[in-house]
Amino acid sequence: MTHFSLDDTHAPAWTASWAASPQPVWNDDFLFPTNLPSRLHLQTVRQLARISLGGRRLRIVLSNVHGNAPVHIGRATVAQQSGTNMHAVTFGGESAATMLPGASLVSDPVDLATESLSRLAISLFLPEPTPLTTFHWDGRQTTWIVSGDQTEATTLDMAALSMSTTARPLLAGIHVERTGASGNVAVIGDSITDGATASLDQDTRWPDVLAMRLAPHDVAVINAGISGARLLSDGMGVNALARLERDVLAQPSVEAAIVALGINDIAWPGTAFARDASPPSLAALTAGYRQLIAQLRARSLRVIGSTLAPFEGALPGTPLDDYFQPEKDALRQQLNDWMRRSGAFDALIDFDAVLRDPTHPSRLAPTFDSGDHLHPGDAGLRAMADAVDLHALLPRLRTVNPPSRPMP
186 pairs with which residues across the strands? Predict the structure, then answer.
């Protein structure tokens, strides 16, 4: 974490401006497909990412954290979304690099000045057979995989398209260098934070909308959401306590964390995900939250909690249509009551109150429901972002809490 003083507020510093939390690629027998080939070879992967803050230089972060073999990067580039202003990305001064099993790879600084809330295109060429073992499953952004080295192509040759996907292989972060006091807020959450039902390619996840509100205050937002994430147990990624260091605490210039976890801990057990498991007790959940809070505060971060939104009728017509049960909802309400009364967090965002149907409080309000009765749609995601009190989030911000502007 970076600490600012009167003497260093004008010194250049690195800030995490975008992130995609790495997950292990699962086997073919899992409930959901990976949406990726099992390996890449002599192919280019091009991904788009909207950074929350711009800067005078940037660097990219790649991850092989779940890999059991080296990953060889033949060439990498970064450009504006249109493919213009293309810059080579180097690692230790070289265009090629090897990422060891279990490791990450941080690039050299790239002299590409960027604006806040701008979209970048990152291209990676994989020259050798590369098993895909580390990815981010649901990026809500189209990624293209094409044959050959097209890292320097302004426009990809779609005749060589192998596939397009919404998964994100290897790319885990973008840092920007800024002059002056700036920081970031990390949001650690599950599919609601990851944006499972947000409009594709539109940056409408609630942390994206929060980034629009915070950018004028020189504060970035990084999304550490993972679909299927849980506080206490592994799922479609490791448990929150196991990934906290990597996904939150190690991010440069992080000042605060918003915790938006728990619904999968409560609702996964007894479903096709974990048929023979039982939900955790309220005591186990609150102990997990308190440990998460303790670890964040040990690094001087401000910790913001969030209540769990209603989910009656969740996921109808799917293999998980038993996700909701009345006894699970009772546990959700008990946990929300603890959050509101315990004072465990520095501040609390009451997503339950924001999103519930006033006439049927165990359900999402129809206006905010994506249709699956678990995940908010774009209007609900915007309401979540607008429910964040910016001064409570970061007291140094003297703000009147303007709502988000409409999406383009």
Answer: 222, 257
pLDDT in tens, 135-192: 999 999 999 999 999 999 999 999 999 999 999 999 999 999 999 878 999 999 999 9
DSSP 345: S
What values do phi and psi take at 336, rounded to 5?
-60, -40
Class (C level, CATH) for 182-393: alpha beta
The phi and psi torsions of 246 (rounded to 5 degrees) equal -70, -45
Domain boundaries, the chain: 25-172, 182-393
Query: What is the length of the chain?
Result: 408
- 328-363: pLDDT as tens digits: 999 999 999 999 999 999 999 999 999 999 999 999
Kindly tell me the sign of the dihedral angle through the C-alpha atoms of 211, 212, 213, 215.
positive
Q: Is 240 helix (H, G, I), strand (E, B) or coil?
A: helix
How far lies 306's CA from each of 76, 105, 312, 352, in Å? Answer: 38, 33, 19, 8
Q: What is the chain's Cα-based Rg?
A: 21
